[in-house]
Design a protein that fits this description.
With about 325 residues, this protein is of the alpha/beta class. It has eight helices and nine strands.
Length: about 325
């Protein structure tokens, strides 16, 4: 039985609901759906909703995003996927799956709950950031007609380094994924992205370091292979029959040493490569480049953040609910 809505960690304007899922090899599994219901707001039942998917080593905390959609007259929901954020349990390997299609169960449960709240005829748009953008695009491909459109915020559609990195990585990753899928890989996080975000380092944001740690949760070969398989599907073309918005920063700075310019660039992914991959998602894809944007455009400094929201609003007015 699905649990009841309770006040979320973000405060009284947010409610959370645990979505029980089928057990896996580690035991009990849940996802968590969060909705934005401002205290004192006029009661109503919007016919339109946005369901947001976070990125890797992440969870939903971007309250400005929820407020933006509320201002558009749209019900806002966010999903903490299994083994992330609110859904992470002590017995689980954080952030881990060995097949991105596993998340279909999470998304299906979330959409069912949204329609229980708003009615069977409610129109749902999916919004995804980074890995959540990849997961959402693949889910939409497998579930035609489930949503009216996709808004993708710096979606992880390809490895930084493209074919060279992929060809170098695949044989090693495949071998490890078969033999030791959950063994932590040796990686180095210089912490530059966190430095652009956190108030303690000159950014504007705070978040729960237990759910979004620096350095990040360990990367594991089974998970990497799942992501690379997803990238391969994108390269073959998804043919999505819904309109897609792909929003990206205007430049990347993926460097081994800190530079102050990183506060106005994507320090995680190669945005030029992502722009090239974006057109493989379907026949109607809009690509927007946001000057001075961070990897998560919703967390960018002004005026980039306002520009991002303005572009989303403009796209939605033309394509979002068609």
């Amino acid at each position: 039985m699905t649990a009841a809505w309770v006040t979320d960690v973000l405060g009284p304007d947010y409610q959370a609901r645990t979505l029980p899922l089928a057990d896996d090899d580690e035991g009990e599994v849940v996802a968590t759906l969060v909705r934005h219901r401002p205290v004192g707001a006029e009661a109503g039942r919007p016919a339109r909703a946005v369901l947001y998917l976070h990125g890797w080593n992440d969870y939903f905390f971007q309250t400005g995003l929820a407020e933006f959609w509320h201002g558009q007259g749209v019900a806002f929901y966010a999903l903490d996927l299994r083994k992330y954020g609110r859904s992470l349990r002590p017995h689980q390997t954080p952030n881990y799956v060995d097949d991105l299609a596993v998340y279909d169960e999470d998304l299906d449960a979330a959409v069912r709950q949204v329609r229980r709240d708003l009615g069977k005829r409610s129109r749902v748009m999916l919004m995804g950031h980074s890995t959540g953008g990849l997961v959402g695009a693949l889910w939409a491909h497998r579930n035609p007609g489930a949503v009216t459109g996709l808004v993708l915020n710096s979606p992880w559609l390809e490895l930084t380094g493209a074919s060279f990195a992929r060809n170098l990585s695949m044989p090693v990753v495949q071998q490890l994924a078969r033999r030791q899928p959950k063994v932590p890989l040796i990686t180095r996080d210089p912490g530059f992205y966190a430095r652009t975000l956190l108030t303690d380092h000159g950014g504007e944001w705070t978040y729960d370091a237990a759910w979004r740690p620096t350095p990040y949760f360990p990367i594991r070969p089974g998970w990497i292979q799942a992501v690379l398989t997803g990238h391969a599907q994108v390269r073959r073309g998804l043919g999505l029959d819904i309109p897609v918005l792909v929003a990206l920063s205007d430049r990347s700075l993926v460097l081994p040493r800190w530079r102050e310019e990183m506060r106005e660039a994507d320090t995680v992914l190669d945005v030029d490569l992502l722009a090239r991959r974006a057109v493989l998602l379907g026949p109607v894809v809009t690509v927007v480049r946001v000057r001075g944007g961070l990897h998560d455009l919703t967390l960018s400094k002004e005026p980039a953040r306002t520009r991002f929201y303005a572009e989303v609003a403009r796209w939605v007015s033309a394509y979002g609910w068609v």
